[in-house]
Amino acid sequence: MSRADNTREKIIKRENMAVLAHEPSMRFIARLLDEINFFGEIAFTSPEELQRKVGMRSTCYSIIRQLERADPRALLAILQIVYSERQKNTLQLETNDDS
C-alpha cells in the first residue's frame, strides 16, 4: 500500500470513528436502516419494487461496511440503538394508549 493509500485509509477510519462516537449520527443511521426494513424480510410485490428494495439494502450494506472499517462491532452498535429506539416507541405508544 502506498503512502497516499495509507493516509487516505487513516482519514477514512478517523471520519468513521467520528460518526460512531456521535450519538445523533448513529441514531439517524439506525432509524434509516429500520425505516427501510433493513433488518426484516424483503416481501415480493413486483419486480420493480423488489429491485428498489434490493438497491436500498445494498446501500445499507455499504454504509455498514464503511463503519466497520473503523469498528468491526459497528453493526452491533446500530442494532442496539434500533432495539432501544423501538423500546422507547413502544413505551410511548403504551403511555399514549393509557391516556
Inertia-based shape: flat
Largest sheet: none
**Helix content, binned percent:** over 70%
Average residue pLDDT? 88
Global structural class: mainly alpha
Please tally the helical runs, counting DSSP H or I stretches of 4 or more residues: 4
Terminal residue distance:
62 Å
Description of the molecule:
This protein is mostly helical and 99 residues long. The protein has one domain. Helices cover 82% and strands 0% of the residues. The protein has 4 helices and no strands. Helix 1 packs across helix 3 and helix 2 packs across helix 4. The mean pLDDT is 88.
Break the fold down into its secondary structure elements and pairings.
Layout: H1 3-21, H2 23-35, H3 47-70, H4 74-98
Helix pairs in contact: 1-3, 2-4
Can you give me a brief rundown of this structure?
The chain is mainly alpha-helical and 99 residues long.
Keywords, separated by commas or semicolons:
99 residues; mainly alpha; 4 helices; 82% helix; 0% strand; flat
